[in-house]
Amino acid sequence: MCIISCLVYILTAEATGSFWDCGEFLSTAYKLEVAHSPGAPLFALIGRLFMMLGTPETAGRMANYMSALASGFTILFLFWSVTHFARKILVPDNKTFSTSNVIAIMGAGAVGALAYAFSDSFWFSAVEAEVYALSSFFTAFVLWAMLKWEERADEPHADRWIILIAYMMGLSIGVHLLNLLCIPALVMIYYYRKNAKPSIKGSVIAFVAGVIILGAVQVGVIQYIPIIGSKFDLLFVNSLGMPFNSGIFVFFALLVLAVVFGLKWAKKTGRYFVHMGILAFSFILIGYSSFFMTIIRSQADVPIDMGNPDNAVSLISYLQREQYGNTPVAIGPYFTARPVDVKTTGADYRKMNGKYEEVGQKREYEYASADMHIFPRIWDSNDPNHVNFYRSFLNLGPNDEPTSSDNLAFFFKHQMGYMYWRYFLWNYAGRQNDYQGQSLGDPKNGNWYTGISIIDNPRTGDMSKMPEGFRDNKATNKLFLLPLILGVLGLIYHINRQKRDALVVGLLFFFTGLAIVIYVNNVPYQPRERDYSYAGSTYAFAIWIGLGVLWIYDILRKKMGETPSAALASVACLVAVPGIMAAQEWDDHDRSHKTLARDTGINYLMSCAPNAILFTEGDNDTYPLWYAQEVEGIRRDVRVINLSLLGTDWYIDQLRYKTNEADAVPLIMQPNQYAGSRRDYVEYVDTKIIPQDKSVNLAEVIQFVTSDDKRNQLPTRTGDYMNYLPTKKFFVPVDKNAVLQANIVEPEDTMLIVPQMEFTLNKNSVLKNDLAVLNIVAANNWKRPIYFSTTIRPNNFQGMHEYLQLEGLAYRLVPVRTIGASENEPGKINVRKMFDNAMTKFKFGGAERGDVYFDETNRRSLTNLRSTYAKLANGLTARGQKADAIKALDYMQKNISDKSFAYDISMLFVAEAYWRAGDATKAASIARRLAKYHEDDINYISSLGETHKENMAGDANMDLRVIGQLGVWARQYNDSTLATELDTKMKVLMSKVPQSAMMMQGAQ
Q1: CB of 820 within 8 A of CB of 843?
Q2: 521 and 334 Cβ atoms separated by less than 8 Å
Q3: Interior CA angle at 132 toward 126 and 138, to 5°?
Q4: How far apart are CA 921 and CA 749, in angstroms?
Q5: Of 215, 466, 598, 771, which alpha carbon lies 20 to 30 A from 980's?
Q6: Considering its fold, how many domains does the chain have in total?
Q7: Considering the domain boundaries, does residue 651 fall inside one?
Q8: Longest CA span, the chain
Q9: Shared domain check, 364 and 257
């Protein structure tokens, strides 16, 4: 099983880094840097070993092989675990093995292990360098190790297995915390093995003890050990004048002495369980010690230093994930509640001037007791989109107050139904496609799917009527419910034959699945699917899939010989479950020729001039660039600044020093002016001091806003003083000679250089990251090129959109104003630079091959490329270079194969660009195919039930608008034949769409 799985994962592993966190993890592993909190230092250390086996160009693939091998050995431990449970059922005395028993036991292990090996979520993580593959390995190992202890519990020194488990759990903390959720199940195994006649009362006590141990490790060890250490360091540094980290050394010395004393005392007094507990605690700490690497590497000021946990105090914030905020679990408000006060929960410290200085207070909102509810699920009031979703999902009016029934309805229908059971059924029933929906009411996107029409059609409709891309999606996996059915049979069989073991597996299933749903308390509109979080739950169910073979064997052997029935049950289940799963899911899990994430990062970097500053936003806009720079050494002169991190003081601090070949970033603000919560939020206040038609030097405004002089602040109702923005109209002086010397503008634009760049802030308040962007622009003084990636939100242009120039996948800030530009269509296009970048430097990640599968995240990147080439073509056409425009579009069409990325709405503006460039034939071809896509969509929607039709009125409206726009362009560019075709199509389709869509169409 291990060899088969390892080979499968190695053959299908991604060629370089993947999207989301993989680029960050690969970058931090390659140079042993610091990943986002709460960190994964052991993952980085092991990843570094694998990456050392390759060149910079192959290091990413080698790290992916680490995940592949870890996943392969996960399958091995699963196989051994399934055979353990099967043997206890068929051969309880562990002695009288018959040939049929051996075949049935091995068949159960093979079916269960391979079913999990080919399950959707686990296979996805097995072929990329993320923490979940290695975390699954630890989960599989500790369960197997506990089962080995169960076999040997009566032998001398058998409890060494428990110490080994404690050590492995300590190590797993340096990868991911999911492994700890096994603890309650392990405790139950211990209780049942040590008690010949276990009782219900004893089982309950054992379960509660398991939960307490889980809490003790997760809170007591992982958080409070460092917290106590940080208190020691605060005392030693601030009160005793000792060097940083001196308190930590004293604390750990005392801890070691306490452990030694405790072990000697327990041994001397014969307190065996105390002795075992202290040993287990010690080995957990030894494993946990991988986090010393985090502090050591952070002190080295490595290029990627997320959270800057270089001391005992900042490590606490890092481990507690403070930058991500708090999520209520047991008690909290509903989304309609409003805070009545703000309470201080502690001080915020930073290393400054040789000690830990207090730079602010940690605060939380307080709510009236009447607004606090048990088990709050509809809790997020900060995001208007979430509030709107709650009201829409629960059918609440604008002023309706949610009830506890609404809260539970959201929990069961959305958090459980959509965010858990849907994922679970992806793995063992089948998957509709890879498009991410947002609720169970969406029949078109990401549902579970069996391939059995009578089960699927009520939820998804007839998928054969869906448009191209949905209809032929490689992630459509038809499993015909077979893995699910076999697993349910195995569960029933397990309960009937071994209730205690079934309870153990059930606890593992619950804590690694449903308990995570409760604890995480997900809000709607997640940026990506979260199925990987629950892989432990599908692991537990795979045990029952394996045991389902025994159920079939049990049935067959009553009608035929035992050996033939064992062989038939094993072979039939192997073909019907893992066989079908592998055949269905290979095409959407094979990433062996995909390099799109890495190539996307390269394309962003190649869009920038030398020594540039590039503002990005979010994971997929940043991590691929880090990977390209840190691992493969590409364009290390570009300073990538992530706006999502720029609101933290530690990240702004890091801009002050050089990283790789990129110079330090110029700043006006000083560290004490933005440390902690200082200047987190600055509001615009019209004090009438500055005329609102007058622009003020941006550098002077920055100095005013960051001033601690109370004469430059306003009093608040609490008696404090606050900084404020006195104006929203700024200017940045332009040194024309410096601009020309830095080649910031094209020679033909020299006469267009403005004496000062005047702009108006596009918001009434700024957060710290906004203030930092303005600070960098003001301090730069046109010495270095400044770029904004094309995928950042337009409001992050800070009102400078008229001075942006598109040069590829990035806009360059230039002192040339484009009157009439908008935030959505900023600035102008530098066709010369953009043409050179797009035609000679851009890479396409395998999209040119035609045999590479790209999921939704990948397709978004390809959509951005299609849009970029369309903009380039339009810019070339506007300059009269129509032949080059067609050349650019043809080049894009060749390299983004429709076999890799089916035509969809992203081709709309490509068609228009062809028309503008004068190639009506290619434009019409795209238009017809695009119209067919949207026609199919309307026909699909019209075939649904009334409720689904109304829910998809927005999609139908968009379909009509696209076909209508194509008709407008066909007439505009004198293609009367196509225009007539589209008009005829529109008349037919308008009678099919929901009335609500027709109303939307008419309103627009």
Answers
A1: no
A2: no
A3: 100
A4: 35
A5: 466
A6: 4
A7: yes
A8: 98
A9: no
Packing angle of the helix pair 768-780, 698-705 (nearest 10 deg): 140
Identify residue 332 by its one-letter amino acid code. Answer: G
10 Å CB burial of residue 246 (0-12, 13-18, 19+) is: middle
Look-up of token digits 């069961």: 412
Q: State how beta strands 724-725 and 681-684 pair.
A: parallel
Q: Cβ-count burial of 652 within 10 angstroms (0-12 exposed, 13-18 middle, 19+ buried)?
A: buried
Question: Do 796 and 903 fall within a single domain?
Answer: no
Q: Which residue reads 């099919």 in tokens?
A: 992
If you ran DSSP here, which 8-state letter would residue 647 be given? T
Residue 528 DSSP class: S
Q: What is the pLDDT of residues 108-132, one digit of tens each?
A: 999 999 999 999 999 999 999 999 9
Instruction: Choose among 190, 119, 81, 193: nearest CA to 544.
Output: 81
Residue 849 CA: distances (Å) to CA of 14, 910, 926: 15, 20, 20
Residues 555 and 498 in one domain: yes
The domain boundary, picked from 567, 589, 611, lies at 589
Residue 468 within a domain: no
d(Cα 591, Cα 125) in Å, to the nearest integer?
A: 12
CA distance 827 to 821: 5
CB 398 within 8 A of CB 407: no
345 and 208 part of one domain: no
Question: Regarding beta strands 810-813 and 786-789, do their DSSP bridges make them parallel or antiparallel, or are they unpaired?
Answer: antiparallel
Q: Do 330 and 295 lie in a common domain?
A: no
Six token digits for residue 42: 């052991």
pLDDT tens per residue, range 733-768: 999 988 988 888 988 899 999 999 999 999 999 999
Handedness of CA 586, 587, 593, 597 (dihedral sign): negative
The per-residue pLDDT for 1000 is: 47
The model carries a pTM of 0.94
Domain encompassing residue 380: 326-402
Please tell me whether residues 522 and 626 are part of one structural domain. no
Cα–Cα dist 539/115, whole Å: 9
Residue ending a domain, among 565, 589, 613, is 589
Separation of alpha carbons 957 and 995, rounded Å: 10
347 and 270 within one domain? no
Please tell me the predicted confidence (pLDDT) of residue 630: 97
Residues 606 and 579 in one domain: no
Which residue in the block uniquely carries the two structure tokens 């309805």? 409
Give domain status of residue 137, yes or no: yes
Q: What is the pLDDT of residue 1003?
A: 41
